Amino acid sequence: xxGRTVGNAGLVSGSYTGIDAGTPDYQAGVNIPxxxxxxxxxxxxxxxxxxxxxxxxxxxxxxGVQDDFNLISFARMTNCPSAGxxxxxxxxxxxxxxDDGEADKGFFYSANTHNNNSxxxxxxDNNVQGxxxxxxxxxxxxxSCRIIIKF
Length: 151
Prior knowledge:
- Strands 1, 2, 3, 4 and 5 form a five-stranded antiparallel sheet that branches.
- By secondary structure, the protein is an alpha+beta fold.
- The protein has helices at 2-8, 54-60, 88-98; strands spanning 40-47, 69-77, 81-83, 108-112, 145-150.
- It has two domains: 2-82, no CATH class; 88-150, no CATH class.
- It contains three helices and five strands, in the order αβαββαββ.
């Protein structure tokens, strides 16, 4: 619903249903907008206790027991929009310019693809929990960061 509202308000170009698109659940140009990055989408989501779709699964875990907030996220599409698309230095650079430069504090977060902390090519050294404690893993060179703005 929020995605449709944002599209109808003209905050993003196009018009989007904001509802499950079938398989996969999220489809750029159908129910969520794409971006200028190839295969990367922007989505707005509510995180609450009953949010069980793929976005709830991949984002609710990032914030532990915190519920009842909205987020905007940018991620590469797989079966769910939760894969990285930025290099660690790029995500850190954005974070430093608009927030505090820390992966797990403030309102700008960076997270590993699908919250996978064991992958050898990761964005942060620990799963983000929204409580501090995760740091950017500058030893990694791949496009492993997705970004989340909590509001």
